[in-house]
Amino acid sequence: MAHEEQVIKPLFAKGPSLGIRLLVFAVLSAVLMVVDARFETLKPLRSQMGLVLTPFYWLADVPVRVWDGATQQISSRSELMAENEKLKAEALLLQRRLQKLAALTEQNVRLRELLNSAALVDEEVLVAELIGVDPNPYTHRILIDKGEKDGVFLGQPVLDARGLMGQVVEIMPYTSRVLLLTDNTHSIPVQVNRNGLRAIAVGTGNPERLELRHVADTADIKEGDLLVSSGMGQRFPAGYPVATVKEVIHDSGQPFAIVRAVPTAALNRSRYLLLVFSDRRTPEERANDSAEAQEAADREAEQARNGEPAADAPAADTPAADAPAQESN
């Protein structure tokens, strides 16, 4: 029995080999490059192809641009943080210098500069950061990151960008505790910046309020007056803002008015503070030095009243005194 051979025909016709195709495309590419370089026949086609492929170019460049942006943000984060801290410190120092502007203006009007006031001298300061708050609601104390190792001393004035905050009451090697102005055990001598009226501002336990004690009912003080440190007691430097008068209550039956004020410093919000190194002497040492200086000034004034000649005065008068004696001889 004869078997017929069955021939299976392929479904798809077999084309040229891969090598031939590569050669054809290579020749075609070379021809296109030569035509494009020598002639302008393909210029319109290239322009249209560029327009069609532009979105694909943009999409292909998106990952690169995203990567570059992320890298730049990550690398510059530390630089931005360092610059931010530096600018904060510089702004705090500049605002601190501006605090004395109102007080110095009034002093110039009243010719206070003739007294050679120490308020005109720029004090040394140290920037500190608040790191803790006393949890006791009846005491207003904070903890800062500067201590004995940084030169902090007891009674040192502390202020923020707006005004006085308080004074150092406890020193540790690397930290210190500050008693705020509004603590009910704290008081500070102040004066009205407008007319120089002196008073004592005491804390009330309320972080938003101070009171002036023993202000005469007829005293020239009104709402909106700026209270600055007077320098009395030689604890706080003179001329720094303390509070703004908020309310003045007059009672005809009482000898003293009720005066309430709002602290200028942001006691509940400030994080960066300034420690003022105006004078490290104790109040007793400053009082003794002042007494000695006053005694020396009194002695000089007594000598001037008695007409005692200066050490160099006789030398200038000697020739004039000898002239008559020569003529008589």
TrEMBL record:
<keyword id="KW-0812">Transmembrane</keyword>
<feature type="coiled-coil region">
    <location>
        <begin position="77"/>
        <end position="114"/>
    </location>
</feature>
<dbReference type="InterPro" id="IPR007221">
    <property type="entry name" value="MreC"/>
</dbReference>
<keyword id="KW-1133">Transmembrane helix</keyword>
<feature type="region of interest" description="Disordered">
    <location>
        <begin position="282"/>
        <end position="329"/>
    </location>
</feature>
<keyword id="KW-0133">Cell shape</keyword>
<protein>
    <recommendedName>
        <fullName>Cell shape-determining protein MreC</fullName>
    </recommendedName>
</protein>
<feature type="transmembrane region" description="Helical">
    <location>
        <begin position="20"/>
        <end position="39"/>
    </location>
</feature>
<comment type="similarity">
    <text>Belongs to the MreC family.</text>
</comment>
<feature type="compositionally biased region" description="Basic and acidic residues">
    <location>
        <begin position="296"/>
        <end position="305"/>
    </location>
</feature>
<comment type="function">
    <text>Involved in formation and maintenance of cell shape.</text>
</comment>
<feature type="domain" description="Rod shape-determining protein MreC beta-barrel core">
    <location>
        <begin position="131"/>
        <end position="276"/>
    </location>
</feature>
<dbReference type="GO" id="GO:0008360">
    <property type="term" value="P:regulation of cell shape"/>
</dbReference>
<keyword id="KW-0175">Coiled coil</keyword>
<dbReference type="InterPro" id="IPR055342">
    <property type="entry name" value="MreC_beta-barrel_core"/>
</dbReference>
<dbReference type="InterPro" id="IPR042177">
    <property type="entry name" value="Cell/Rod_1"/>
</dbReference>
<dbReference type="Pfam" id="PF04085">
    <property type="entry name" value="MreC"/>
</dbReference>
<feature type="compositionally biased region" description="Low complexity">
    <location>
        <begin position="309"/>
        <end position="329"/>
    </location>
</feature>
<keyword id="KW-0472">Membrane</keyword>
<dbReference type="InterPro" id="IPR042175">
    <property type="entry name" value="Cell/Rod_MreC_2"/>
</dbReference>
<dbReference type="GO" id="GO:0005886">
    <property type="term" value="C:plasma membrane"/>
</dbReference>
